[in-house]
Predict the structure.
Amino acid sequence: MKVTTVEEYLKARKNIVDDALDRYLPGEDNFPGVIFKSVRYSIFAGGKRIRPILCMASAEAVGEDRETVLHVACALEMIHTYSLIHDDLPVMDDDDYRRGKLTNHKVFGEDIAVLAGDALLTEAFRLMSKRELAGNIPADRFLTVINEISEAAGFLGMVGGQVVDVRSEGKEIDEKTLNYIHTHKTGALILASVRAGAIIAGAGEYELAALSEYGRHAGLAFQIADDILDIEGERELLGKNIGSDKSRGKATFPAFFGLEESRRMACELIDKALSDITMLDGKAEPLRMIARYIIERTV
Amino acid sequence: MKVTTVEEYLKARKNIVDDALDRYLPGEDNFPGVIFKSVRYSIFAGGKRIRPILCMASAEAVGEDRETVLHVACALEMIHTYSLIHDDLPVMDDDDYRRGKLTNHKVFGEDIAVLAGDALLTEAFRLMSKRELAGNIPADRFLTVINEISEAAGFLGMVGGQVVDVRSEGKEIDEKTLNYIHTHKTGALILASVRAGAIIAGAGEYELAALSEYGRHAGLAFQIADDILDIEGERELLGKNIGSDKSRGKATFPAFFGLEESRRMACELIDKALSDITMLDGKAEPLRMIARYIIERTV
């Protein structure tokens, strides 16, 4: 794949992920049709596919082919999408729009939206455990990856972060709580995405440790950048109510530290992410490109 | 374990499962406390543990120790419990009580109830993929079991059944739809419970086929028996509104075929379940005992 800019790289990778998701997910002609329509509606609602892209780039950094981890990469996107569907529910964040499109429950009803989230989460594990997609990779690597991803997505990770987030709305929170929310609600699954690619690729101890630090730093920078964009971005570009996080008293870095300091923190995290993987060779170049891009979006 | 009656057997097995669930689930002192309280509230709300008991009995029928599959058995109960928490939500069945106790969302709020269900489903996969609990069983057996259980729980199984169930309420449905709901909403996970135990135990092709037929027949009989109990049982005994399924126009066997015919169908299914496993030796006796008990409850 000949790529000249990071935008082209990300677009090409997004296409690969979108095609694979379309192949892996049962069609809308399956019974009962409404659940497959609902699941596909949210999966193809225009996500950036940052988690699957990181997963594939991480496998490649260790010397494995991206095809080998493609189904695990897609499973990560399913888990991310399920979390968005449930987060948008009236009993949670109560959002009518996401990325310029009506949220799942506004189109299919709240009952189906709950079930579509449940189905996507479950399907992620079905996909990761498919032996016919494992190639010649040992089964125990997939078991390890399933274990890490479920830890990152559950009450010790993403769900835990969401619990603290919904229960903090409109309250004064301290820096420790802000950090807990971000490292758990978003950071844990991004870190797991990077680690998953590396583990399936058979990364050595030092490679895995380096990539984990990269994932930790880039993941938090990504969330801070998203918070900045939420405030600064334009409605047309992002397709959701700008400043909606702030208006509800959400715990965000810009709300806590201000825009300038948040931008400085994100830059510092990206510097760390880049230095975390200096020991890796040219095959890690896409990971470096993605890290720099996270910051470029916000300036 | 010396047991004289099926009730004693089931009680002893339930205690084993309860103790294991208590060990496996993080304590309420973990942060954020509310999610661990919420998860534990529903897990320890008095379930019969029929899925884990079947999983262990199936492993034993093949000659494996029940301890080997205990964590998979508990994971099945977590998936069952998550489905109950989400089913009870106001946007789904809107139930205030289950087994005589307030439902999860009535105690912890709807946001936490959604997240508690999500957390339990995710935790089930974390538990099944724990390598330190795998003993000397090959990793690929666990991968197979995770794949089968996620298929049984997802949109091609339990979630699919629930979709058709909630979308059929108050409507005239045909026998095909009734069968779809029951084989998917309840039957699929019970079948997967029996198969999971057998697969981890290393069942041969014929044993697995026999146990699968047993699981299919006993699973459907169990659901019919539950429907009969829902109509006939006493409020004090079951702790939920008797006839509540019928009053909402739920698709049940007694509502469709009448009580007598439903009872006859359940008996016939149990006869089939028993004959499915005639080729298995005395180690399958608990499975036979459980099958007969399913019917005895309803007369």
About this structure: The longest strand of chain B covers residues 97-98. The radius of gyration of chain B is 18 Å. Chain B has one domain: 6-296.
